[in-house]
Design goal:
homodimer; alpha+beta; Molybdenum Cofactor Biosythetic Enzyme, Chain A; Molybdopterin biosynthesis moea protein, domain 2; Molybdopterin biosynthesis moeA protein, domain 3; 4 domains; 6-stranded mixed beta sheet; 7 helices; 17% helix
Chain lengths: 398, 398
């Protein structure tokens, strides 16, 4: 049986390049940037007023102590001054407009009184270059603006727009199929008998995949070797095949043998993790991968976070998921001899932010992850974790 | 000028009911649940085996110390046993199958040896009820399963599926228009002149809105009173109108007067916050609201997090955003006399998770929020915040 680290290393040694495509910025949210973005110009692109006010020669006020200047022009954002600010004069300027030639400070409109064609200054105590954002002070033309392999969130999309990247290179998305197996499983809208349960794993997985804009087909099949073989055969061209159920030690757990009969190479079976111990991982003849997950809802959700998401991120050349280290606000007993992943909520008590573990009867407990914010780790060699132990935590959001 | 708390209170006193609609579970991700969900049956719905093994009468092993039982049947998940387990017999059972009548414990397959029609047990030391998830132990039929007014994330969607909610009531989404104003602003794919800049605010706002599955129209307009009036008139039937630019003290800042001329009631103008001080807020004749934001990218993003998102959540009857309290890993000087919101990344140093503030030259710094995870608060009355100060932080993700 593999340790979690060994299993992850094996999984990450089978990453696949999904390719790169160029798409509109309007479809780029949550996609993974596949090109470094360089500044197309200086930012700010010109010396820009950061206030509504008057562009002046600073020495007129600071040294000559002039309290009145001649107003010679007014410019708005989007305008360029026709005149030059020479000593004794000023130009009214709005936020975002380029500083006129000759001016080297802006005095805010609220610190001035405008009378006909003159402006009186309430103070001559100004700083040189005040309220001017200098050309290139944020970033200079040609410098790296956004490094590739990050997820495009709202702030990053905004920077792409500023830099004129109407189309952007992102990694192509993998083709993914999720097959839920089990004679006892029915679809959410099927009639249900007392000894049956409804499939929730395919929709949980498709919901997690949507965090990366990945869609997937979902299929539900009985535990029947012939049917499973016919079904899996249809998905051997996929990048990723995720199967839930049928990987443990039961007589009807046909998934590994059926996959192997189709030429899928077993890389490992079973990991020292709870929930999700029977995890099976293999590589298809096309280089795609198969994750065989146990069928319990909590196992499936944990397996996505611990194994499938790290695999996706590695395929996209992304950094590994960032854990948080936070105090656990309750005792947490150990239930197994393995490393345990357990659902927690982020809570704040007396201005200390920490975690509360959710009650979980078993990995079949349908509501165990409900209202949780992610999973924390109970290490293999630690027995009871006492209140206020600092634990490693991974958010569902990423 | 309003305090942030006053401004928020005024905004939240103008929430609107967007209505409720019933949609397919397959479109429900990130929507806000508008109905309490009750358990349609007990969970587990029957006494269920949590292991592959043999269903036995516990006293056969525990008290009678029998080490061999007669195997009378095999059942898989999805099957119901035809026979009853009477003393001296056992039924082979797979994970997920209902416990046969008469049995009160399951012995794992790895602790047994099956020989023809007999099963030998390697140990008689078992716990009563072991490896049985009892009917109703997680939740009982009719009890509240999911409380309304939460965002449907992957774990919640999975519980809806288990409970057979193929269609679910969620709050309808507001109609939203974003108008970016400014003579200097051009669209991302337009040719650009040296004194112009590209609009990034509309795409930043539309990206944030997508966290709630809300789409919006986006429009770009010049600072021209007549044009703005014609434009805004078209959006007076919307639930939410967001305008960027044109709300400060400049001569071309026509947004408030144009809105007022169209019958929009000003609720407040200006808030003691940096960035975003010139915020304007009003109510349209239809009861919809107008957020007039300053045009700088950081101001727009902060205004979304501090004012617009709380408004949306209140309209959906959601809980307020949850802050994190984390140590700030660097000194943070104060730049203004207002409460400051500043972009930070979540980082971990020596297994302590905290925040690093991003370098920000000004609220016009296009890359200030890039790579940040959210905004932290520098309170109004606090001067320099020293390294390791505990700060209040709001994640961009919510």
């Amino acid at each position: 049986m593999r340790s979690i680290d060994e299993a992850l290393e094996l999984i990450l040694s089978h990453t696949k390049n999904f390719g790169v495509e160029e798409i509109s910025i309007h479809h780029a949210l949550n996609r993974i940037l596949a090109e470094d973005i360089f500044a197309d110009r200086d930012y700010p692109p010109f010396n820009r007023s950061t206030m509504d006010g008057y562009a002046v020669v600073a020495s007129d006020l600071l040294e000559k102590k002039l309290t009145e200047l001649k107003l010679i022009e007014t410019i708005h954002a989007g305008d360029i001054a026709k005149l030059r600010v020479s000593p004794g004069t000023c130009i009214k300027i709005m936020t975002g407009a380029p500083i006129p030639d000759g001016a080297d400070a802006v005095v805010r409109v609220e610190d001035c009184i405008e009378n006909n064609s003159n402006v009186q200054f309430k103070t001559t105590f100004i700083s040189p270059k005040q309220f001017i954002a200098q050309q290139g002070e944020d970033i200079q033309k040609g410098n790296l603006l956004i490094k590739k392999n990050i997820k495009l969130d709202a702030p990053a999309i905004a920077v792409l727009a500023v830099a004129g990247k109407a189309r952007v290179k992102v990694y192509s998305l993998p083709s993914v199929t999720v097959v839920s197996t089990g004679n006892e499983i029915v679809n959410v809208n099927d009639k249900i008998l007392p000894h049956q349960i409804r499939d929730s794993n395919s929709i949980a997985l498709s919901s997690f995949l949507k965090q990366y804009n990945i869609s997937c087909d979902t299929v539900l099949e009985k535990d029947d070797k012939i049917i499973l073989k016919e079904t899996f055969k249809n998905f051997l061209h996929k990048d990723i095949l995720i199967i839930t159920g049928g990987v443990s030690m039961g007589d009807a757990d046909y998934v590994p043998e059926v996959l192997i009969s189709l030429g899928v190479k077993e890389i490992f079976h079973r990991v020292k993790i709870k929930p999700g111990n029977p995890l099976w991982f293999g590589v298809m003849p096309n280089g795609g991968v198969v994750f065989g997950l146990p069928g319990n809802p909590v196992s499936v959700q944990a397996a996505f976070k611990v194994f499938i998401e790290p695999y996706l991120r590695a395929c996209f050349n992304m950094e590994a998921l960032k854990p948080f280290y936070l105090p656990l606000f309750n005792d947490k007993p150990k239930k197994s001899k393995f490393t345990e992943y357990f659902p927690c909520s982020i809570v704040t008590k007396n201005k200390v932010t920490g975690l509360e573990s959710k009650k979980m009867n078993s990995s079949g407990d349908i509501a165990a992850t409900l209202y949780s914010d992610g999973l924390a780790i109970h290490p293999e060699r630690t027995e009871m974790m006492k209140e206020n132990t600092i634990v490693e935590f991974y958010s569902w959001n990423s």
